[in-house]
Structure formats: structure tokens, C-alpha cells
Task: inverse folding
């Protein structure tokens, strides 16, 4: 049976079937192909192709990590329109966590089985260089955890505090205990969109420069996307293709994580449905097509039921149990951390094996 026959019975749009058949035969899709996929309303057809590619790239095991997301400060000069988390330095609820406070949070997480600590915060000009280095070194000294820390905008911000190049800055953080870099700050990798929603934040090329510099130093990273606000379908597709192009150089991205924008308490409007989300997960798998093995389902923004559905649309990973999360919650999304039992249940319910992993997707 050919790949074409594999998906032919699921739809009657010859153009879409030809595009998906090309992907199933390891052909590279372009921007126009991606737009046509997003315009296609045959979810069964898209899901069939994406699920086939998921099985081929990542197998049938659903993975997750036990982690805690620690936001060390909410003071930020970027003031992005889509963010409900940031505060001015003189706000009553502005904060900077002390190193002992961070160590206390890590200790709580480790006692609950965490192997990953995700650390991100605002671009706070009053934090010293020594704070970042001490944060990493003290955590690594006391705990056996992987430090998944500091998004590209934070790395650029820290490099300016250092007065050093990106390579030197990342190297110094690595020496202090940085293991990997999260893909935050990507939003949409297009400067038209970024100029509107986050004009004070780095451009998309600088975001890519941080990631490629990290990859050149042997530091793995993830890549993210926040969609459903001011971007066009073409800009969504270009975002994924730009990630795909970056991956060709060092193969340093371990996972791609599409998030749907949450608009409450922000200056932007947006409304992504579950169907929009499933399409984006499928598109991610189809366009990346093996170049990035892991596609993460976002239970935080979509809920556990839609995240389970995403496992049929190209996703193979459920992300973290997230003992703590603050940024999405600030945008009005009800948040409750997930237990290992919940992840095991939803994976086994659809007939998949499930495994705990570390930050680098090694099975634990």
C-alpha cells in the first residue's frame, strides 16, 4: 500500500491529498502548501497524515516530564501586549525572588519527583549578573535537576548586562549550570507581527541567533509558537518553516511547542478554537516532518481533553506536570498541575504506552 493509498480514503480533495502524500514521501513542503493545509477543513485527513508521520518519527510512546516553572521576577521592560504577567518596577505586586526562595521552590519540586526546573522571568534591568550565575550554580550544587532556563530575550538582556557577546554570555551561563534553553519569546517569528505586539522585544532573527549560538555550543533548546492573535496564516506557516531551516544547521531543537494565545487581562484580542489548535499541531508535524522529533501538546492552554486529542494529530509529548505555572494563569486560564496518574490515564486510554522523560527526552 502506498502512502497515497494510506490517506486517500480519508478525503476527497486531490490538492490536499497530493500535498500530504508528498510529505509522507519525505518531500519538503513550502509556504503555499502550509497555507492550504490550514485552510483545509478535513480534520480526519490532516490527522491521518500527521499521525502517520508521528508514528514514523517518534513512535507510539507518549512522554512527559515532572517539572516546575519558576518565574524569578515579574518586572519587565518589554511590556508586550500579549502578556498579563509583567509589572512595572514600582507596582505593588512586583517581585524578584531571592536565591533562597528559588532554592526552596526547587526543593519542593524535587521532593515531588521533579527532574526539570524551568526558569524564566521578565527583562528586569535591576538584577545583577551575579544573580543569574549564583541562581544556576546554587541549584546545581544542591540538587540533581536539569536547568532549562532563560529564553532568548532574557539571554540577550543578560548579554547586555554582561557587556559580552551572545556566545560568551551563554558559555558563562553554561559554566554556572545552564543545561538547556526554552523556546519562549518566539511568539510569531515575523517582525511585522513582533513590531505590533512586542515592539521592545528582540526581532525574530536575533531570536534565531541566540538559538543557533546555543546549538553551536552543544546546548539543546526547544522552539515555541504563540498563535491566534494578530498573525496571518502565512506568518504562522513561515514561523514553522523558519524553525525547520534553523534546525538544519546543528539539529539542536529537541521539541516544537505550539501554544494558543490566551487573551484575558492582556491588550490583545484572540480566540483560537480547539479545532484551530489541532490543525496547528498537525501542521507542525507535517511541515517539520522528522526534522524535530517531538511535538508537545499544550494541556495548559487547551485543557487535558484537547491535549489528548492532539496525540492523534501529530503530538507525542504531554510536556510537564508543571508543579507551578504563573504566566498563562495571569492571562485568566484556570491552572491546576497534573499528576503522573493523569498523564498515564489519558495515554493508556488511547492505547499508547507512556513514559517519564528528562529534559533531553531520554526515557527515565
Result:
Amino acid at each position: 500500500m502506498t502512502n497515497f493509498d494510506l490517506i486517500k480514503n480519508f478525503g476527497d480533495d486531490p490538492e490536499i491529498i497530493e500535498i500530504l502524500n508528498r510529505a509522507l514521501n519525505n518531500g519538503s513542503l513550502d509556504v503555499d502548501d502550509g497555507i492550504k493545509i490550514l485552510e483545509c477543513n478535513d480534520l480526519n485527513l490532516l490527522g491521518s497524515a500527521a499521525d502517520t508521520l508521528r508514528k514514523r518519527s517518534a513512535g507510539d510512546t507518549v512522554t512527559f516530564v515532572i517539572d516546575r516553572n519558576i518565574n524569578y521576577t515579574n518586572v519587565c521592560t518589554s511590556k508586550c501586549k500579549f502578556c498579563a504577567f509583567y509589572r512595572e518596577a514600582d507596582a505593588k505586586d512586583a517581585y524578584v525572588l531571592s536565591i533562597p526562595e528559588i532554592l526552596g521552590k526547587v526543593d519542593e519540586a524535587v521532593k515531588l519527583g521533579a527532574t526539570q526546573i524551568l526558569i524564566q522571568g521578565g527583562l528586569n534591568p535591576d538584577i545583577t549578573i551575579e544573580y543569574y550565575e549564583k541562581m544556576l550554580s546554587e541549584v546545581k550544587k544542591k540538587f540533581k535537576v536539569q536547568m532549562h532556563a532563560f529564553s532568548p530575550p532574557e539571554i540577550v538582556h543578560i548579554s547586555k548586562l554582561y557587556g559580552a557577546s551572545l556566545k560568551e554570555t551563554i558559555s558563562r551561563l553554561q559554566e554556572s549550570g545552564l543545561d538547556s534553553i526554552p523556546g519562549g519569546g518566539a511568539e510569531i517569528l515575523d517582525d511585522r507581527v513582533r513590531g505590533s505586539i512586542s515592539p521592545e522585544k528582540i526581532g525574530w532573527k536575533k531570536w534565531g541567533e541566540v538559538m543557533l549560538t546555543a546549538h553551536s555550543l552543544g546546548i539543546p533548546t526547544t522552539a515555541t509558537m504563540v498563535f491566534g492573535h494578530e498573525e496571518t496564516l502565512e506568518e504562522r506557516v513561515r514561523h514553522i518553516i523558519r524553525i525547520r531551516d534553523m534546525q538544519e544547521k546543528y539539529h539542536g531543537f529537541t521539541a516544537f511547542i505550539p501554544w494558543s494565545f490566551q487573551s484575558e487581562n492582556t491588550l490583545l484580542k484572540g480566540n483560537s478554537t480547539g479545532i484551530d489548535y489541532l490543525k496547528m499541531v498537525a501542521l507542525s508535524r507535517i511541515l517539520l516532518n522528522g526534522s524535530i522529533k517531538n511535538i508537545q501538546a499544550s494541556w495548559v492552554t487547551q485543557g487535558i481533553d484537547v491535549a489528548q486529542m492532539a496525540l492523534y494529530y501529530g503530538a507525542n509529548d504531554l510536556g510537564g506536570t508543571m508543579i507551578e505555572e504563573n504566566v498563562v494563569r495571569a492571562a485568566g486560564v484556570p491552572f491546576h498541575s497534573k499528576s503522573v496518574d493523569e498523564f498515564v490515564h489519558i495515554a493508556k486510554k488511547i492505547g499508547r504506552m507512556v513514559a517519564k522523560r528528562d529534559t533531553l527526552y531520554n526515557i527515565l
